[in-house]
Design brief:
Number of helices: 9
Shape: elongated
Distance between the termini: 52 Å
Strand content: 5-15%
Structural class: alpha+beta
Helix content: 55-70%
Order of helices and strands: HHHHHEHEEHEEHHEEE
Low-confidence stretches: none
Amino acid sequence: MDWLEEKTEQIWRFLQEKSLVRALVWYLCICTVGVIAAYWITRNLCLVWIEVLEKRQVQAEAYYRDPRLLAASAEQNGWENFCLSALRGFYSACLYLYILIGFAAAGKIFLETRIKPPIAAITQGLNYINMGDYSHEIVWRGRDEMGLLCGEMEQMRREMLKSKKSQWRQQEEQRKINAAFAHDIRTPLTVIRGYTEFLQKYVPGGRVTQDMLMEKLDAIHEQEERLLRFSETMTTIQNIEKRELSVSWHSSWQVIKQLETVILGMKQNTELELSLEAALPETELFFDLNLLIEVFENLLSNAMRYAVHAIQAKAVLKGRELTVFVKDDGPGFSEKALRMGMEVYFSEEENSKEHFGIGLSICRMLCESHGGSLSLQNSVEQGAIAAATLVIGVK
C-alpha cells in the first residue's frame, strides 16, 4: 500500500507540473486506459455469461421436447431470455457508455483539481480587495497557466497595496507639509507685522530717519522674498503630485546618451570632476525618460553642494528596476539627514533660508510616482550616496 500511495503521489505531482492542455491530455489518456480495461473485463464477463445462458437454452430445448413441457418451461426461461438480451445489448453498448463515463470523469477531475481551486483563490482575493482589504494574499502553487494567472493577480494586489500605502503616505506628508508651511510663514509674517506697526506708529510723527526707514523696508522685503520662496516650493510640490507620467520606449543607448548630456552640461559650471558609468544591456526600456533626467539633475545638483573634488554617477538595470547612483566625496549625510533628509522643509539649521531636502523630496516624489524609491546612505570610504530607482518595462 505504501508503494501504491507513493506512486500515486508521484503521478499527481507530475500532472500538477504540466500545463493545462498537457494535463487534460494526460487525464484523458489515463481515463482511456481505464475505459479499455473496464471494457475488456466487461466483454469477457458478458461473453462468459452469454455462453452459459445459450448452453442452458440449448439444454432446455433438448430436454423439453414435449410441447406441453415446453409451454410449462416458457415462464422459467423468460427470465433467462431477458438476461441474455440485456447482456447482448450491454455488450454492444458498454464501450460507448464507458467512453462517455470516462471522458466525463476526466473532465470532472480536471475541473475540480486544475480550474476550480485557482479560480476560488482569485475570487476570494478579489472579494477581499473589493472590501478594501489588500493584505490577503492570492496563493496558488501550480506551475500551469492558472498558476501564472494567480501570480499576476498577486502581483497586481501587491501593486495596489503599494499604491494605497503610497496614497496614505502622501496624505500624511501633505498634512506635514501644510503644518510645516504654516509654521514657517508665521515668523516672516510676524516680522512684517511688527515692522509695519512700527512704521505706522512713528513715521507720521517724523521720528523715523531715512536710514532707519530703508532698514525696515529692506527687512520687510527680505521677509517677502522668503514668503515667495515658500509659495514657489508649495507650488512645485503640488505640481509634482499632479504630474502624469509620459512613458514610452527608449533604447538603452538613448538613455546613456541623455545621462551623458546632463553630465557634460553640469561640467560647464563647476571645477569638480564628474564621471558616469552606465553599462546597460542592449534592450528597450519603457519609462518616463524626462522624469529620470529631472531626478538625475537634482541629485547631481545636491551632490555638487557638498562634493570636494569629484562626483561619480552610475546607472544599473536589474530586472525591471533601473537605478541611478550619485556619489560625492564630501562629508556625507548626518544621522539626522539619513532619517529625515527626504522630508520637505527639513533643515539642520534653525534659521536656514534654503530648506535642505527640497531637492531630495522632489526626487523621492518623482521616483515613487514611477513605482520606485529614493534611498540615502554614506559611502564606506567617504561621501554620500543617493540611489534613485524606477520600476520600468523591459523588452
